[in-house]
Task: inverse folding
């Protein structure tokens, strides 16, 4: 190794050490700050996956806009889905501050290089599924995102603060749908329980693999990208959601679920990790449908992007 390369290496090590000290001391990292290349890559992966999840997540709910049971329900659902699109935009913008373009992120989604949350590869079969998505899916997303409000990257952390405010409405609208159905006819109660049975386990999978199986955890904690482990957040979600289910008379579909007095938590049954792996690797019930739909509407929207870019260029020329 030449003398210059050796110096560069030493400088890099020094910069990384300083960076870690800063982050461990609680400083936020901003786009123009020096950062290790792997920190940047880790964030691009996570934030772009998060953004794709918000946008792909509009599909299962969008399926019910035309079939909402009342005008009130339709208005609320429309507003919620629009919020999710907005969350995608904040997150794509946060990722762009790390030097990746929106086009590159979309290309990675379309090629299968970038993932999105397992949960959006399941179908929304009945109106009760809209309740279960709001209550369980947004509920799980909030537990994760509240923790991410204190993530070390400034633009991501600030996006989370705003997103969490909106997600808490989403969780409540879902719970309201489930509570109403549980006060309804026998058929409606059955529909609500069926939705609970189908969404419970995939919602637990949203938190990712067990801590011992989570390859990104080491870096994520060293750089304070994550503030709580996958299992800690999953447990938090279970503890609060079981009680909410009891209040409205729903049964959690887990025969091993039991309150553990000594631990102060619910013990729960094992998650089907084979199903999780299949779903996140492209082989879930709706993976193909979700991606094909995204590709189709992305191609149909091409003229809007071209027109917006032309307008922007024209305005810039005038100034
Ligand atoms: N789905 O080492 P770890 C929402 C992958 S937003 C798919 O533990 P990490 C709002 C992971 O990427 C929901 N893949 O990884 C809404 C990695 O694979 P890779 C989205 C998953 O990053 C509601 C591998 O497994 N929220 O719902 C999943 O440290 C209703 C190893 O995993 C976020 O994205 C999964 N669930 O921890 C919208 C939150 N879990 O990349 C519409 C931000 C793991 O090496 C309607 N993300 N994998 O190929 C995070 O907090 C983290 O990325 C985790 C995973 C916790 C998801």
Result:
């Amino acid at each position: 190794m030449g003398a210059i390369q050796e110096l560069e290496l030493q400088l890099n090590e020094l910069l990384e050490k300083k960076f870690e000290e800063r982050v461990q001391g609680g400083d936020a990292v901003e786009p123009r700050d020096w950062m290790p290349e792997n920190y940047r890559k880790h964030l691009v992966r996570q934030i772009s996956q998060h953004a794709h999840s918000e946008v792909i997540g509009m599909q299962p709910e969008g399926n019910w806009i035309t079939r909402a049971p009342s005008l009130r329900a339709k208005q609320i659902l429309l507003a919620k889905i629009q919020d999710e699109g907005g969350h995608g935009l904040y997150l794509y913008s946060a990722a762009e501050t790390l030097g990746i373009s929106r086009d590159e992120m979309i290309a990675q989604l379309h090629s299968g290089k970038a993932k999105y949350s397992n949960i959006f590869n399941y179908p929304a079969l009945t109106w009760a599924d809209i309740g279960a998505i709001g209550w369980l899916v947004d509920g799980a997303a909030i537990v994760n995102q509240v923790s991410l409000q204190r993530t070390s990257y400034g633009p991501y952390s600030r996006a989370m603060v705003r997103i969490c405010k909106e997600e808490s409405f989403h969780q409540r609208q879902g719970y309201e749908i489930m509570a109403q159905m549980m006060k309804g006819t026998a058929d409606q109660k059955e529909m609500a329980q069926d939705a609970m049975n189908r969404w419970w386990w995939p919602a637990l999978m949203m938190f990712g693999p067990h801590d011992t199986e989570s390859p990104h955890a080491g870096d994520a904690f060293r750089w304070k990208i994550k503030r709580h482990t996958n299992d800690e957040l999953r447990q938090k979600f279970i503890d609060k959601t079981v009680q909410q289910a009891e209040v409205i008379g729903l049964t959690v579909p887990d025969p091993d679920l039991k309150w553990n007095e000594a631990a102060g938590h619910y013990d729960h049954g094992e998650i089907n990790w084979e199903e999780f792996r299949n779903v996140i690797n492209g082989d879930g019930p709706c993976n193909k449908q979700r991606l094909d739909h995204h590709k189709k509407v992305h191609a149909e929207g091409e003229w809007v992007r071209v027109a917006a870019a032309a307008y922007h260029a024209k305005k810039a020329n005038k100034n």
Q: What stands out?
A: The chain has a mean pLDDT of 97. The radius of gyration is 22 Å. The longest strand covers residues 258-260.
